[in-house]
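Thread title: Can someone regenerate the structure for this chain?

I was given the following input by a collaborator and told the matching structure tokens would be attached. They weren't. Posting the sequence so someone can regenerate them.
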Amino acid sequence: MLGLRWLSSVKVRARSETVGIDYASWWVVHMLLITCVPFSTIVLGRFAQFAPAVWLYAGNTALIGMIALRMMAMTSDVEPAPGEQERRWSLITLIACSLLAIGLSFASPRQALWAAMPQRALTGRRKPKSSLTPALKGCLRA
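Best answer:
Regenerated them for you:
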């Protein structure tokens, strides 16, 4: 999930070379939450039977999605990137599935993370197109 999010954000091209302090502040918070993903994943893996573990993991992913949406809204001077609408819907689906998992964890914490499964189907994730040239692909196969 994080790899796909990173790849999609790399494709965004800004016309200006600087960003405002608000955007930079949101970016720092976003990076802090990204660094918390391994920790929240470990906690969830060890304590999946407890609702707070689900809250930690799903809450972290929901916050990542919300902040990413906010950062997308703040970049008004970016060139429209291909697939921007798809990324926006992907974030909305991520947030909705994470909140659903939190809600379901009150009834059954172990089953709550199944709420994240529809995200892949709803966003229509496809295998990303390779940006490698044919010559470079040939070198990598050899």
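The chain has a mean pLDDT of 77.
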